[in-house]
């Protein structure tokens, strides 16, 4: 049979390897989140406020959806 020291050494090496892989994964995840935050910040920085025409069109679409939902629910307007 193998010595207990061999098993202890192998367990310690496996635990160290697992810790290294976990830390590398966490650093990669944090980097990916930072990248997505930067993309969102850039998108909102470059976005112009909606024009009056666009707001009117959105309001018109919302009204149409409200009417269609009322028709589907069987409510008379």
The averaged pLDDT comes out at 89
Report the principal-axis shape.
elongated
Residue share in helices?
Answer: over 70%
How many angstroms does the end-to-end distance come to? 85 Å
Number of domains: 2
Q: Compute the CA-based radius of gyration.
A: 29 Å
Oligomer: single chain
Report the biggest beta sheet as strand number plus sense, adding barrel if it closes.
Answer: none
Number of strands: 0
Strand content: under 5%
**What order do the SSEs take from the amino end to the carboxyl end, as H and E?**
HH
**Category from helices, strands and their pairing:** mainly alpha
Number of helices: 2
Low-confidence stretches: none
Structural features, described:
With 77 residues, this protein is mostly helical. The chain folds into 2 domains: 1-46; 49-77. It has helices spanning 4-46, 52-73.
Task: Give the tags.
mainly alpha; 0% strand; 2 helices; elongated; 77 residues; 2 domains
Secondary-structure topology with pairs:
Elements: H1 4-46, H2 52-73
Quick description:
This protein is an all-alpha fold and 77 residues long. 84% of the residues lie in helices and 0% in strands.
């Amino acid at each position: 049979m193998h010595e207990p020291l061999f098993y202890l050494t192998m367990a310690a090496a496996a635990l160290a390897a697992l810790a290294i892989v976990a830390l590398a994964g966490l650093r990669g995840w944090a980097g990916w989140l930072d990248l997505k935050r930067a993309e969102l910040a850039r998108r909102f920085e470059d976005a112009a406020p909606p024009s009056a025409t666009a707001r009117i069109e959105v309001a018109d679409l919302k009204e149409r959806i409200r009417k269609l939902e009322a028709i589907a629910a069987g409510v008379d307007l």
